[in-house]
Every structure is written in structure tokens, then in C-alpha cells.
């Protein structure tokens, strides 16, 4: 066989290998990520800033290190859950662990974070949370599909009970649900709102509402523990691999690495609240 024919065969063999590798990467190494607006943890990028938030930075660091390319879908939470259930997204990086086991998704084992919760009320309001009885008669703000059951089953039942519909304001929106709820508290249209304390401080700072609103303690009974969820439409072997990559990667992002990512967004879980 001539040298030319040998080189030609090697050339086409190389093309075949590259082609197969590219096809595999284009399919298996693309991770479709749905997430909602929950700054500073998850943020929709804008013309002013390309930042995507603490959790998205962590997710990107973990999966790009394993050769994945991330494709993002910025959507409201309810839409993100539907997209994961339908297999249109592979992962939603933060969702509250629920007692409801009938889901179209599977939880990762390692939490993103375990947050302390708190309430926001109008400044000067003496109300404090002392169990669900203290909420009765108060106008509560929340978002569509938001789940509090891991922090307080009683609070979740109160939110879901049709008898309380006149006192529960479900605020829809794209990327401004929390902003709108806090402004509704200022306007005396809602009395209180519960969330991750880190998020509450961030939003109050950004909206400059410290003169009008205040963060109160105690929060709900348990910490807000959030985990990524993975679509059941993903083949089992691939889904288990994605979960393993997350679990191992999140364990590695502890201590100084975690603090550095938080510092980028001017927040710290170590600061007293």
C-alpha cells in the first residue's frame, strides 16, 4: 500500500473518531439547566451583569470540570418544575425536599445549602412567629408552587388550605416575585413573608427597604434544605452519573472555595443575622 493511501486512511479514521466524539459530546455532555430567580443564589443575567448567582456558579464549576456544557433556561419555578418533569430540562439546581414522593424527578443526595429562615414584616410591626397559630388572620405572601413542607408542615398546610385563600396571596411573576411581595408588605396589602434569611437581606439591601421593612426571628421550625432535582426522563444510568457528579463535586466545594463564591456576591453564611 502506498504512503499516500496509508495517510488517506489515517485521515478518514481520524475524521471518524472526531465525528463520533463530537456527536457524543454534543448529546451526552450538554446539561439543560432550568432555574428561577432567587438572588443571590440564582440570578437571571441582564445587560448590566452576566452573573448567575452562587448556586449556578457552583453547578457550572462542578459539571464543566467533568466535560459538560451547560444550557440555561431562566423560568419561573412552576415552569421549571414542569420542564424537568417533561424532560425538557435535565436539572433544576435548587428545590425544597418535599414529603410528597410522587414526583417526576429524583433528588440529588447532597444539599446545595441548608438555610436559616426568617420573616419580613413592616417596620414597627410587633408580630413574631410562634407557631402556626400566630399566622392565623395574617395576610401571607408566597409564590406559585413554592413548597415550605420541609421547614414546617403546619405552615404548608396553612398555605394550601382553601379555607385560608383570602389570607394567602400567591404572587406570580418572571424574575421579580420576591420584590413584588416585599413591596406589597410596604403597601399594607400583605403582612408577612418567609424565606431564606440570606435572600431576605440581599433583597432588602438591593431595594433599599430597611426603613420600611424588617427581618424578624424566629423563622420556621426547620432549616430550608434545598437539593438539585433531576428529570426521570433521563435514562437511569445517565441520571445516576449526573447525581454522582453533583454529590462528589458539592462535597469538594466546602470551606474556602464556598466562601470565595459567596464573597463574589457580597454574602456570607457565617455572618450573624
Task: Explain what the structure shows.
There is one protein chain. 37% of the residues lie in helices and 19% in strands. Helix 2 packs across helix 7 (236-252). Helix 4 links the parallel strand 7 (140-142) and strand 8. The chain has helices at 3-28, 54-64, 77-85, 153-160, 177-186, 197-207, 236-252, 256-264; strands spanning 30-35, 69-74, 91-96, 105-107, 113-115, 117-122, 140-142, 168-170, 193-196, 213-216, 224-231. The strands form four sheets. Strands 3, 4, 5 and 11 form a four-stranded antiparallel beta sheet that branches. It folds into two domains: 26-113 and 225-264, D-Maltodextrin-Binding Protein, domain 2 (3-Layer(aba) Sandwich), CATH 3.40.190.10; 117-216, Periplasmic binding protein-like II (D-Maltodextrin-Binding Protein, domain 2). 34% of the residues are buried.
Write the layout of secondary structure elements.
Layout lengths: L2 H26 L1 E6 L18 H11 L4 E6 L2 H9 L5 E6 L8 E3 L5 E3 L1 E6 L17 E3 L10 H8 L7 E3 L6 H10 L6 E4 H11 L5 E4 L7 E8 L4 H17 L3 H9 L9
Parallel strand pairs: 1-2, 7-8
Antiparallel strand pairs: 3-11, 4-11, 5-11, 6-9, 6-10
